[in-house]
Amino acid sequence: MLTKLKRMALGASTALTMTSAAIAGPYDAYEGTTLVVNFPAHPHYNAVMKILPEFTKETGIEVEVDQLPYLKMRERQTLELGQDEGDYDLIAYVVFSKADYVYADQLENLARYFMNPKLADPSYDADDLIDGYVYNIGFAGGNKGYLQGKTGSLFGMPYGSETSVLGYRKDIFEKHGLSVPETYAEMLDIACKIPQLEPGMGGLSSRAASGHHAAHAFLLHLAPLGGRIFDDAWNPIVNNKAGVQAANALKKIIDCGPEGAASFGFGEALGSFLNGDTAMFLDTTVVAGQIDDASKSKVVGKVGWAMHPEGVRRGSQTGGFGIGIPKNAENKEAAFLLMQWLTSKTGDKLVALAGGNPSRFSTHADADVNAKFPHMATFGEALKHADPDWRPIIPVWGKINADLGTTLSKVLTEGLDVQVALDGVAERTRGVMEEAGYYTWQ
């Protein structure tokens, strides 16, 4: 038997050990771990690469990045997530991949990580994250199956949030005494005045190429003008008054745009604005860095930023990426710590200062961030109106989107009547939805 003195000494030793364990840092157990992550070759994630050494310095966790072209990510991720043990501990994904990965049970539900006091940082402040992006990129199983709601769960975090904003040439507007448009009527009016005031210059640079680009451009106008692709019972309503108005808005923009505008993809639309060939640009916030880059832009210092013009309501796009933990990841807890650090207030500010797209309201309002990037406050205000349901995130959307974009291209290039075009899209969409089982319970 232990003597009383030995028992006292053992008790003191045990208490010391317990005290040491209690004050251990949150990263101590994972120091020396190497995480393998899959990120896109994209301006935001190029900025992320600059701040990852700070994470390793703080935590002792190494990060190896497999950075791939955006269009090649899905193929690689599908291969990795389908194995019993995958190579990736953390992945970046676009919103349509979220739905597929969750449905296939390939992403971790994040609840148990945020519930774990050893992992969850109490100062994280989730309420500071941009609401529309959390719902759009992170939730599944809620309203409509892909948004927030009482049946929904969180499977990813927004990281690289983009929305639509209006870029405009300050010098051209000042020269002709033009006011920055706040409504759709004002924007469309100025778009068609510009070619008259500045011969050879288009009014507004837009995507329009057949397929995805034409559909994307149409959707930019559909939500703020009060439209949706479906009603709450999945009936196609793309051909109602709001849909016709959105298509006519796109047609007017292209008719008053630069030469060749009807065939513009995103690159061509941005290029025309960078070259000074158009007075306005309505699309994603991610272009700000290129517009301010003298090696790519002829309009450095000449561009102002405003919110997406209002139709019957405010409504701008939700784009960009989210990050999630694969179900078959080897180092899930360490991956969560990286995810948490990247999307924390500290990480979000670091990536913003490095040229990335922050995902927090506080970062957009931060004095240091705005001193370096004066447009951030405007972008943050626009993000308050980012619409998580500006396009439906359902498995059959790819097929519907392609049909919509191909048909709209015929409106822009062949003179197909808008109402006839959208009626056809609505009819074909109903067939797609019926085949997919969306009307089973009706």
Description:
With 442 residues, the chain is of the alpha/beta class. The chain folds into 2 domains: 31-162 and 319-383, D-Maltodextrin-Binding Protein, domain 2, CATH 3.40.190; 164-317 and 396-435, D-Maltodextrin-Binding Protein, domain 2 (3-Layer(aba) Sandwich). 46% of the residues lie in helices and 13% in strands. The strands form 3 sheets. Strands 2-1-3-11-6 form a 5-stranded mixed β-sheet, sandwiched between helices. A 4-stranded mixed β-sheet has the order 8-9-7-10. A two-stranded antiparallel sheet has the order 4-5. α2 (43-59) links the parallel β1 (34-40) and β2. The N and C termini lie far apart (76 Å).
Give a short overview.
The chain is an alpha/beta fold.
The percent of residues in helical segments reads: 40-55%
Predict the CATH topology of the largest domain. Answer: D-Maltodextrin-Binding Protein, domain 2
What is the CATH homology-level superfamily of the largest domain? Periplasmic binding protein-like II
- How many domains, as an integer? 2
Strand-and-helix sequence, N→C? HEHEHEHHHEEEEHHEHHHEHEEHHHHHHH
Mean residue pLDDT: 93
Biggest β-sheet description: 5 strands, mixed
